[in-house]
Amino acid sequence: MIMSASIGIACLILFGLVRHHCKVYRTRLFHPRVAAIHRPPPLRATWNLFGWVLDVVNINQRTLYDTAGLDALYFDRSNLLMLKVIGFVAVVNCGVVMPVNYLLGEVITDEEITIGNMSPWDKLSMTNIPIGSALMWIHAAVVVLTTFFVCALLYVDADEFRADRHAWLGHSIQAPRFEDEETNQSTTSSVATQHASLDGGSGRLKSLLSRQLSSHIQEAERSACKYEMHDESSVEEKSENFDDFSRIHSEMSIFQRQHVFVPGMVGSIASSRWAVKAQQYAVLVTNVTKSTCVEVSTSFRSMFPDVIAAVPVLHHVIVDKNLEKLDQAQLSLLRLEERISTSRNPESERMKKMLSRREFLKEKISSTFSAVKKAQEDSKLDPRSGYSYIILFRSQASATIAAQTLLQDPGGDRGWNVAAAPAPDDVNFQSLWLGPGQRWYRSIVALVTVAFIVSFPIGVFTSSMVALSAALCSKRSDILNSEWYCDNDGDGKQSFFFRLLTAWIPSLLLATWNAVVVPFGFAFVALYEGSEITLSGIDRKVFRWFYLYSCLNVLAGGMLAGSFFSQLENIIRTPSSIFTLLGYAVPQSSGFFLAYISTNAFMLEPLRLLLPHGGVLIWFATGCGRRFAWSGRITRDISAYFSPRSQRYGSNYGTQQLIFLICLVFSTASPVITPLGFAYFLLAWLVWRYQLCYVFIRAYESGALLFPALFSRIMFSLLLYQMFMSFYLLIKAAFVPAFVLWIIVPPFLWSFHSHCTRCFMMKSVYLPLAIAKEMPVASIPVDAYCAPQMHPEFRGWASEVGKAWQGYGPFVRKYV
User: I need a labelling partner for 655 at 20 to 30 A (CA). Which of 195, 343, 427, 623 fits?
Assistant: First the structure.
C-alpha cells in the first residue's frame, strides 16, 4: 500500500505540473469539435499543484449538464451516490462492527497470532466472533440498516431521474425571434404547446418540472437553441472554407444532431422557428422482410393520418469505406498543399515531384468521389436497406401511440417490431440491417463468447496467488519455507518478493484484464450480436455483462479460491472440520480484495488522471502540438494529437460497480475494507468529474438511459450482500439472525424495486401521452434520420461517427 500511495502521489504532482502545458488535459476548452456553449468554465488556481480539485468541487450540476450532458451528469451522480453509500457503510462498520469484533470477540488469541496462521488484522473481522454468539445480531442489524439507507438514497435519485428525463425528453423549444427590422419589436423563446391548450400545456409542464435542475435543463436547451440560431450562418460559412479542413469532415454539435428546426404552427408566432427533438416524432420499425416501403407507409397511414413518410434505413457500409478513402486522400492533399506553399525553392526537383503528386491526388479524389456517389445509389437497391424503417409523424401523440402498436406484414403473419425511435446520433445502424436468421445465429455465437469471458478464471487465479502464498508461508507450514520468498526469520517482515506476488502482480493483472480485455471484448460482442438498435444500448449491454462477470468471476471466484487456498493445508489435515475452517477463511479471503482496492485507489486512479487515454503520450511524442515536419503541419493534424476520446460508459459503470460490490459484500465481515473503498470513490469522483468536464466528449446523448440498469444492479448488490451475510451467519451457527435477514431483506428489495420501476423507470423511458398531446405539431424533415454517409453533403460525417466509443481507433469497430 505504501508503494502504491507513493506512485499515486508522484502521479498527482506530475499532473499538477504538466496540466497547464498539455492540451489533452484541457481539450474541451478550445477543441473545435466542442461548441462554445458547451465548453466548461476556465480553470483557475493555475499556480497551485492541486488547484484543479477546487475547480472540480466548485462545478455544480447545472454547469456539468451544460458542459457534458445528461449522461455525464448521471454518471457523476452515480459516483457521488457510491461515495455516500460507502461513506455511510464505513462509518457504521468501522464505528460499530469493528469495535465489537475487536473488543468483544475472543476467537483469535495471542497464541493464534504467534503460532497459527492468523494476523492481528483478523481480530477486526468477524473471524474473531465465537460460533453461535449473540453478538452477530449486531451484524444482522447493520445489514438491514445499510439496505434501508441505500434504498432511501436510490428513491430520491429515481424520483429526480423521472423529472430530469421528462425535462430532457418532453420539452419543445421555440427558437428566439430576433428583433424585427420593420416593427422594431422582439420576442423571447418559450416552451411550445399546441394552439388548442397553450396555457394549459405550459402550466402542466411547469407543475411537472418543479425541480430546480429539471427546470434548468429546459432553460439550457433554450439557450442552446438560441446559440444554434445565431451560429447557423457562421457554420455554413465555415463549411465552405476548405483551406485547412477535410471537405467531407463537418463536425456537428449534439444539439444539431438531435434537433431539427421547424416553422411554428401557432397563429401569432407562425413566423418563428422551433427546435424539436426528432426522436419524439418518430418510431422505428424493424423485422420487415417481406414488405416494401410503400406497404409500410400505407400500413401506418391507415391508422395515423399525420404520417409524414416511411424512411428506409439504407445499408451504407461500402459508402462509409469509400468516404474514409476520400477523407484520407483529401487530407493528404491538404498536407501537400501546405508543403508547397511553404517551400523555399519553387524550382527544385522536389517541388516538381510535389506538383505531380498534387495532380495525382486530385484525380484520385475525383474518382473516389464518383465511387462514393455510385455506392450511395447502389445502397438503395440493396435488400438489407428494406429491413428497417423510420416512420415520421407530425405530432408526438401519434408517435407515442404508434410506438406501442402491434403490426405485421400485409397479408402475412410475421409481426413487425415497433418501438420509439432513438435520437439520430444514437442509432446503431448495423443492427438495423440484420434479418431474423442473422440475429439468431449471431446471438448464439455472442452467448458462447460472453460465457467464455465471464467464466475465464482470472478472478480465481489472481485471488489464489494471494491466498496460496499466505498459506504456504505460514509459520506452521512445512511445504514452503524459503527465506528469500517468505522471510520467516523471526523479524515479522514480509520479503519484497512476497509483497510483489501477493499485492501488486495480482491486482495489476486483474485491473489490466478489467480495463482492456473485458470491456473491449464485450463491446465487440455486443456490436456483433446486433440486438441493440442504439449506441447507448451497446453500453448498457456491456455494463450488464460486466456486472455478471463481476459477480461470478471476480467476487464468487475470488472469494471461493481465496477461502479454499488459505485453508488448504488445514483442510488436508482435518477434512471433517471444513465448515469451521471456512468460517475462519471467508473474511480472510478479503485479503486479495483489500490489495486490489488499495492498488486502484492509491495508484491506478492517480495514474488515470495523469494518463486519461493514449492521446497524452501521442501529444508529447509529437512535440506538444508544435508544427514539426514529422508531426503534421495542418490544423487538423495538430488537433488530432489532442483530440478527445468519448466516454466508455459501459466499462466505466462496470468498474465502478465491481468496486462497490466488493466493498459492500465484505463491509460487515471485514470492515477494514470500507475506508479503502471510501478513498477510492472519493478520488474517482474527483478524477471523473474533471475528465467529464475537460477531457472526454460525447459520442451520443441518450438522456441518462443507463440509470435504470444501474438502479437494478445496485438492488442486486444489496441482495448479494444479504445472501453473503446470511450464509456466513449460518456457517457461524447464528441461525436465527440469518433467518431474519431472509425474511426482511429480499421481500423489501423486491417490493421496493417493483415500486420504483412502476412509478419512475417506466414513466421515464416514454413521455406520458398527456404531455405528448400538448406538444406542437411539426413537419420533421425527411432527412432527419439520414445517416451522414448518405447525406448529399455528408453532413456530420467523420471516420469515428457511428461508434459507441469514439477515438479508440481499431480497438472499437463500427461494423462487424
Answer: 427
- Parallel, antiparallel or unpaired: strands 282-286 and 389-393: antiparallel
DSSP 371-435: HHHHHHHHHTT-GGGGS-EEEEES-HHHHHHHTT---B-TTS-PBPEEEEPPPGGGB-GGGGG--
Whether the CB-CB separation of 156 and 85 falls below 8 Å is answered with no
β-partners of residue 173 are 191, 275
Burial 122-144 (b: 16+ CB within 10 A, else e): bbbbbbbbeeebebbebbbbbbe
pLDDT of residue 241: 38
Query: What is the rounded CA–CA span in Å between residue 354 and residue 212?
Result: 60
Q: What's the burial of 630, exposed, middle or buried (CB within 10 Å: 0-12/13-18/19+)?
A: exposed
In the numeric block, the cell 403473419 is attached to: 413
What would the grid cell of residue 184 be? 422594431
Q: 294: how many CB neighbours lie within 10 A of its CB?
A: 9
Model pLDDT, residue 119: 63
Query: Can you list the alpha helix ranges (DSSP code H) found in 550-589?
Result: 558-566, 568-573, 578-588
CA distance 564 to 645: 42
Distances from the Cα of 117 to the Cα of 96, 468, 565, 566, angstroms: 26, 12, 13, 9
C-alpha cell at 457: 478464471
Question: 115-119: which pairs have CB atoms within 8 A and are 24 or more residues apart?
Answer: 115/475, 115/476, 116/474, 116/475, 116/476, 117/470, 117/471, 117/474, 117/475, 117/476, 117/477, 117/566, 117/570
Assess contact for 278 and 420: CB atoms under 8 A: no
CA atoms within 13 A on the CB side of 730: 10
**pLDDT at residue 592 tops 90:** no
pLDDT at 633 (0 to 100): 67
Burial of 770 (0-12, 13-18, 19+ CB in 10 A): exposed
Percentages of the chain per state (helix, strand, coil), in multiples of 5: 65, 5, 30
Residues 6+ apart with CB under 8 A from 505: 465
Please name which of 235, 210, 188, 178 lies closest in space to residue 37, comparing C-alpha atoms. Answer: 235
d(CA 354, CA 350): 6
Which amino acid, one-letter code, is at 635? T
Q: Residue 259, SS3?
A: strand
Higher pLDDT, 106 or 151: 151
Instruction: Say which residues have a Cβ less than 8 Å from residue 627's Cβ, sequence separation at least 6.
Output: 633, 638
SS3 282: strand
What pLDDT is recorded for position 153? Answer: 96
Q: Which residues, other chains included, contact 21 with Cβ-Cβ below 8 Å and sequence gap of 6+?
A: 624
Under a CB-based contact definition with an 8 Å cutoff, are residues 395 and 301 in contact?
no
Query: Residue 616, Cβ neighbours under 10 Å: how many?
Result: 20
Q: What is the per-residue pLDDT across 394-407, written as a single tens digit (0 to 9) for each? A: 988 899 889 888 88
Rounded distance between C-alpha atoms, residue 522 and residue 513, angstroms: 12
- The three state secondary structure string of 597-660 is HHHHHHHHHHHHHHCCCCHHHHHHHCCCCCCCHHHCCCHHHHHHHCCCCECCHHHHHHHHHHHH
Q: Give the amino acid at 248.
A: I
**391 has which bridge partners?**
283, 310
Alpha-carbon distances, residue 458 vs 414, 434, 595, 651 (angstroms): 44, 34, 16, 17
Cell numbers linked to 673? 475494507
pLDDT in tens, 236-247: 333 333 334 456
CA–CA separation, 676 vs 94, rounded Å?
A: 12
Burial of 67 (0-12, 13-18, 19+ CB in 10 A): buried
Q: Which of 301, 293, 155 is nearest to 715 (CA)?
A: 155
